[in-house]
Amino acid sequence: MDNNHFQQHFFNHIKSKLPAHLSLVDEVSGLLDISSDSAYRRIRGEKPIGLDEIQVLCNKYQVSLDQLLQIQTNTVIFSGNKVDPLLFDFKKYLEDVQSSLQLIKTLDKPHIYYYNKDIPIFHYMQFPELCAFKFFFWKRTLIGYPELAKQQFNGEEPNKENADTAKKIINLYDQLPSTEIWNEESVHITIRQIEFYRQSNVFINKHILLKVYLQLEELLNHIELQAEAGRKFLYNQPAAPGAAPFDIYINECLIGDNTIYVQSAGRQITFLNHNGINFIGTQDKSFCDYTLKNLQNIIRKSTHISVSGEKERSMFFNTLRQKIYDYKKHIN
User: Binning pLDDT at 50, 70 and 90, where does residue 199 land?
Assistant: First the structure.
């Protein structure tokens, strides 16, 4: 590949990563601190781009030169933030989730595939006490905020901005066509977290404990209704005309790992979960193709319970509701 062709290919690749409302020229001129005319000349290949400029652009847009130059390596570039109890900003974490969904919404015909180990985080956000419980669990146990080490859970999210962001997140997710792959373990994880806090006397009283279990049941009922309709809609609201499609598959033998794959016309993104609530993402084509192939294989071996599959759908959700009922019986 000659230098001129590589340079044009490089900028076309960056352009494919930009949301539709952003200008490639404005982005390049701003990042490289050059005029719009200089940016145009580099984009058209009229002026060679320097290695230092390539580095700036690659770091910003997570571009793999190995991939662009068709060098055969096993390197895949991911981007993401690592949770640190002393530095981690939970508010910013939620805002990053919101920003990622806003970016996905700008893509051409996006579709989200979620191979979940836990219930997808978006679903919790319509149920205030349950959502507050998950936030508290993440902050106290997964992240390990020192100030929460001895604090009990009172059923509320103390930061109103976090609660408001959560509402924006579920509103965005409900507008995006999605396919989710579930297993009974997806719900058992949350039940085990609730029971761990119950046995550790972290709930401030049994009424809050029961409220969290009740909202977990309501969440499952809501998911079941959406699966039956094959469409997304907000809790206690009817499906709007043209509501986003919603497919659920049940896989009884494979446990998910919270992989999120986004497919659109001309663009792919894969997000991987690690170390609790951390996510890293990549747009590496070979890795995204591999992820899609794996998800398609899992779906072929799973049971589809959206719209059709009424018997399997009822059995699955009834089993989970019975599990919750069995634990609630022991609360006194």
Answer: very high
Measured in degrees and rounded to the nearest 5, phi and psi for residue 238 equal -75, 160
Pairwise CA distance, residues 8 & 270, whole Å: 25
- Which pair of structure tokens corresponds to residue 188? 């058992």
- State residue 241's pLDDT score: 83
Which residue is associated with the tokens 């990053």? Answer: 96
Average pLDDT over residues 46-56: 83
Compute the half-sphere exposure of residue 134: CA atoms within 13 Å on the CB side of its CA: 26
- CA distances, 287 to each of 8, 271, 279 (Å): 23, 11, 16
The sheet carrying 259-264 orders its strands as 79-80, 278-282, 267-274, 259-264, 111-115, 178-182, 246-250, 303-304
Residues 6+ apart with CB under 8 A from 212: 129, 130, 133, 155, 194, 203
Q: Is 303 helix (H, G, I), strand (E, B) or coil?
A: strand
**CB proximity list for 304: less than 8 A, separation 6 or greater:** 247, 248, 249
- Neighbour tally for 108: CB within 10 Å: 9
- Can you tell me the distance from the alpha carbon of 90 to that of 328, in angstroms, rounded to the nearest whole number? 31
Distance CA 90, CA 123 (A): 18
pTM of the model: 0.79
Q: What are the structure tokens assigned to 317, written together? A: 């959700």
pLDDT of residue 10: 78
